[in-house]
Specification:
Elements: E1 32-33, E2 40-47, H1 50-64, E3 69-75, E4 90-95, E5 102-111, E6 115-124, H2 125-128, H3 136-149, H4 183-192, H5 213-217, E7 228-232, E8 238-246, E9 249-257, H6 259-264
Parallel strand pairs: 1-6, 2-3, 2-4, 4-6
Antiparallel strand pairs: 5-6, 5-9, 7-8, 8-9
């Protein structure tokens, strides 16, 4: 059972069910951090400005309420402008990335088919500095959801018109009640991390030796470098891309598009 039963919302993973359906389980493709014990401790690099500090704190505390996971905030190692990953941990960044069309992007580097080796989250201040998205509800939702993707969670529901599920892993146009994880998110994490692995990617200072060197060198900074589209919500607001290097090695990108992107087309 999870440490707490209160509801909390998230934002930004890929659903492998039909678009618009509520997910009975919402593992993101079986992706998970390899580890040899539970609970495991995942370091989260703080590359955010003061405007995001309290929201990142909330996100870390929310996910640390899981019985299988503890998140620890630590000094960031990334330049927020490109938010390069660090092996064995998640880097979270914010910057004015421009009129890209996206509010948030979560990326994971996967080896051995399902093992996450490193992850990044980008929060686009070009939109969060506008009246539409500059609110605690939107900031909590996107921060919570994108970080949730980096630990292997997908969305519970991708239909923006359905009633809110009181979780950040639920798409919504009104995020007021969707700012934190809910009980189902914690239960899903217990399912995802029920088994133990013989090796660990958590805290590793080097990428797995079998991973192609190009995976550590490439900078998947925009749609032209994200690979093929593999999943999309019915309205196209949430999409997932895969850059496949073969032999179970890939970079997976989840994108949450803004209303402006849907209205004017994506760059």
């Amino acid at each position: 059972m999870s440490k707490i039963s209160r509801f909390i919302p998230i934002v930004a993973v890929v659903v492998l069910l039909s678009a618009g359906a509520v997910s009975a389980n919402h593992s993101w493709g079986g992706y998970h951090w390899a580890r040899t014990q539970n609970p495991f401790t995942l370091m989260v690099g703080d590359n955010v400005t003061a405007a995001w500090d309290s929201y990142l704190t909330t996100t870390i505390n929310d996910w640390s309420a899981s019985t299988v996971l503890n998140m620890v905030r630590t000094g960031g190692k990334a330049n927020p402008r490109n938010c390069r990953p660090t092996s064995g941990r998640v880097e979270v960044c914010n910057s004015t990335y421009g009129n890209t069309g996206w509010l948030g992007v979560a990326q994971i580097w996967v080896s051995s088919g399902t093992h996450i080796s490193q992850g990044t989250v980008k929060l686009n201040d070009t939109y969060f500095n506008t009246s539409t998205y500059n609110s605690p509800a939107w900031r909590n939702l996107v921060s919570c959801q994108e970080v949730g993707h980096t630990i292997g969670l997908d969305h519970q529901d991708e239909n923006f018109d359905n009633p809110n599920l009181n979780t950040c892993m639920d798409y919504t146009s009104n995020p007021t009640s969707n700012q934190h994880p809910n009980q189902h998110d914690y239960e899903e994490l217990e399912t995802i991390y029920a088994h133990l692995d013989s090796t660990t990617t958590v805290g590793s200072t080097i990428l797995p030796s079998a991973m192609p060197p190009a995976m550590g060198d490439i900078d998947p900074d925009g749609p032209s470098h994200w690979g093929r589209l593999v999943s999309s919500s019915r309205d196209g607001r949430s999409q997932t891309f895969e850059l496949d290097f073969g032999q179970g090695h890939k970079i997976v990108t989840h994108v949450l598009w803004s209303d402006e992107a849907l209205g004017r087309g994506r760059r």
